[in-house]
Sequence to fold (252 residues):
Amino acid sequence: MKAVINWKLFFILLGLSLFSVICVLPYVLTVQGEVIQATGVPIEAILLVQFVQSIILFSIAIFLGLLFTKKINFHLPLFEAIVHRENSKEVLNRIAGISILFGVVTAISIYVLDVLFTAQGAGISTHQVYAPVWQTLLAAFYGGIAEEVLMRLFLMTFFIWVSMKLFRRDYPPTAGIWISIVLTAVIFGLGHLPITASLTAISPLVVVRAVVLNGVGGVVFGWLFWKKGLESAMIAHFTTDIVLLTLLPLVF
Fold:
């Protein structure tokens, strides 16, 4: 009987996602440490519960994401090459350059756009450093892996699958893909509000900032997933976070 999904892909993505969850913990403890301590619950207990929740969340998201990816005929070219023992190095060489380039351009674009929000009085800025460099470097793995699994592999593919049903097509309609990319990008931006709330007061301006700045990245990563595969979106997202949260603040 044919498997519903490729379970080797499932466990590769689950392992990477949980690795990225561990990587982001130092950054979270620095940025949200006071909020966590205010709960009165031991940090160890909170981290254990969070990790168990992550196992459940990512298991569901990856399973459904791979299912929807198959239905809409999207691909994970690098991971698929690894699983099928094909020339993964060739695949990586094909997507690495453009992914890194888009990541750098996206980071610079967000950094420049944020000047406008800073000028309008937003109480948070990408120009500020909120955690040590080593923590932001580690946190980039969470953005590049976990967020792409949740946003692109699961949510975006789900929206595209729904668009196929609405348009009554056997293949993803271009309009449906773009709507899915933008809708996922907006949700991606709103998803950053909890961490933003630990750094500044939430206001309409801060909400708009979160949607616009993260939405820029979300659209780019969604387009790369569509055209180049999930790994391209992951590499671009990782590059964006490294440049935006580590390199640019250090330089300027």
